[in-house]
Specification:
rod-shaped, 1 helix, 96% helix
Length: 83
Amino acid sequence: MRQGERHEASCLRLTRTSHDSLRVVLLTVLIGLTTLTVGVIGVVAYLDARDTSTDLTQKILGETSKRVTGWRLQERIHITRRG
């Protein structure tokens, strides 16, 4: 192998190593950003679902309470009319 061929082979190895290292850096950044995005979306979805379920629970309990109170009132009126 001549001196010039050795230099070319060395440059090719260096270039290949640089591409591999750039590829690793870019993949690491993309995987990190993807993981961060999925995590943030997951947390936001969880918090929104929790707030929605709390709100619906309060509405259902309020409606049930109104119906039970109305039913008891109707029952008392019915008993009073009979007695």
